[in-house]
Amino acid sequence: MDRRALLKLVALTALSPRMNALQAAAACDMKAASATSSAPEYKLQFFSEDESRLLDQLMEMMIPADSHSPGAHAAKTNLFADMMVATSDDAVKQQWRDGIRLIHEEATRSSLAEALRKASDNEADPKTDLERFFALLKQMTVDGYYTSETAIHQELRYLGNTYVMSFPECTHPEHHDP
Amino acid sequence: MSKSEPFDVCIIGSGAAGGVMAKELCEGGAKVIMLEAGREVPHAEFLSHRWPYELPYRGLRGEKQAPFYQGDISKSIAYADSDNVGMDRVRVLGGRTLHWNAVTLRYAPRDFKEWSLQGVEEDWPLSYEELEPYYDRIEQIIGVCGNDDHLEILPAGKHYLPAIPWRCSEHILKRATSAMGIPLIAVRKAVLTKPRDNRPPCHYCGHCMDGCDVGSIFTTPDCMLPKARATGNFTLRQNALAREILVDREGAAKAVSFIDTQTRAEQQVEAKLIVVCCSTVESARLLLNSRSPKYPMGLANSNGIVGKYLHGHLGNSVSIYLEELRGQRPSNQDGATDHVYIPRYNHLSGKSDIAGGWGMQVNYTSYMFPHHAHRLPGYGSSFKQNVRKMQPGYLQMGSFAKVTAVAENHVTVDAARVDANGIPIPVVRFRFSENDRALWKQANQSMLEIFSHLKGNVFSSAGDAPTGFASHEVGTVRMGKDPRTSVLNSYCQAREVKNLFVTDGSCFTTSSEKNPTLTIMALSMRAADYIKEQRKRGDL
Question: What are the structural domains, with CATH classification, of chain B?
Answer without folding.
Answer: 2-42+70-536 (3.50.50.60)
